[in-house]
Amino acid sequence: MGTAFTVDLYGANAGVLQAAADAALEEAQRLDRMLSDYRPDSELSQVNSHAFERPVAVSQEFFDLLAACLNYSRRSEGSFDITVGALMRVWGFYKGSGRLPHRAEIAEALEHVGYRHVILDRAALTVRFDRSGIALDPGGVGKGYAVDKMVTVLKENGINSALVSGGGSSIYGLGAPPDDARGWYVKIRDPKDSAKKIAESYLRDQSLSTSGNYEKFFWAEGKLFSHIMDPRSGFPAQAAVAVSVIAPTTLDSEVWAKPYYILGRQWTAIHKPAEFRVLMCDNKVGAECAWVR
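Above: the chain sequence. Below: its structure as tokens.
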């Protein structure tokens, strides 16, 4: 998935821990073979290549994840959209660091974006696109899904104390380390100074995901453009500079970090579930990072 996964484990038997870690990391490799858009033979790449020509048969797991993504899109008013691939390409964020496209290029890309163009047939387990040029992009969902599946593998191997990280931006704390019953201590970095923290928390059977404009960006015409794309406008989102979400699953925390980032504090305060905690750094002069109430 173009990133690194790490697993930290506590337990009494080193052999059990090593076997569990190996199994969890193999799970990440398995999901890379399913979800990577860097692999032409992945299930996702096969859908992108052929789903406009014909319905593409997929695994139950892939189908269920894609169905969940479409549901996230509906609930987020289209601000999360797994079909954002055409926009990521035109802005140069696919296998690149970014470029400023012409408005005509953006308008053309928007013709090939929209979760409503993904047609699922649950009985046949197939995916098809009703418009050419649609491209699924797993960048906003793959790491979180993989972390959750790795945690499941660890539990199946008898592990009850672990910290699993996907790229450092999507983390799950299973149980607690032996020296702190509050859970796994994590720091949330200052988006303007990586040497500083803006908040800290403890994860105990919880996840933390962060989206920030410092992750991948470029400067053009005196403005910063980040890779966090608003699929409705075709432009990088500007409402925030960073959003961190603490949620029961890493899939939830990773996915929802994008709509909250795009739609801003007021929308987030109204729509976030009670069990979520959201730290938002608004993109306003003099604005401070604060938890959404």
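The first helix runs from residue 14 to 35.
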